[in-house]
Amino acid sequence: MSKGLERYQRVLSGNLKAKFLLNNKLLNEKTREAYKILEKCELCERSCRVNRNENKGECKVGIEPIISSAFIHVGEEPFFVPSFTIFFMGCSFHCQFCQNYTISQWQENGTRISIESLAFLMERAGGCKNINLVGGEPTSQLPFILDALSKVKINLPIIWNSNFFMSLRSMDMLKGIVDVYLSDFKYGNNSCAKRLSKVNNYFDIVSRNHLLAFKDSELVIRHLVLPNHFECCTRKVLEFVSENFGDKVIVNLMDQYRPFWNAHEYPEINGVLEKEEFDFAANYAENLGLNFIK
Question: Of 63, 131, 137, 254, whose CA is between 20 and 30 Å from 78?
């Protein structure tokens, strides 16, 4: 792994300043626009276009914040911990192997909270390095998150921990607010994403959003190596990173795949990842000169 990259000195040292505090007027404008989007929702690229004031779309999120939990997380990337992590309910994906399926697929009820309570939770993060917004998927709750941030006064950076299926309008909402984009770059093509996460045009959308995020702020990319998906997914994800970012982003190459939820219905992922398969992926990342951790 390359060391001492100038772009990442702030990330690795934890010396980040919260962007959203620098321009509260901009944040208020973005909050108003985000609430307006709920009238014909297109926060993610499913673009359900339902009126969230009356109905729920694919994510099944309504018109108020709903979370699973919020706590100090020490299991994130080492340069992020301790991280005050808020797990939002619901997701725009239906990943058949999701380890957080009880959150993403509404197999638990979650807790409905007010905007003020969400802001209060964020204020409790004072002893941490950041506020980490995850799920499920935070995109469906973007208006509530922006609204809560407008009431937060502590100077902590925001991590947007996401599947990266945000719409262009959501990317515009996030611009100038997020300090670190932490992506979950799952697939190297559209067909695997359609089969295993039930979404269309995955690679086109997610690769576009990575390019936009890199222009806006810091970017850390997670890639969970799936069994039997090196050629179709891992190779192509790593090559995309190499071609577009070189060693200017940190890649977390992850080996902790387990066949959760419906994975037993898909023979090629109905098992653990073999050490030899992960080592092959890590060697490929090293040969590409990527700045990766594992």
Answer: 137
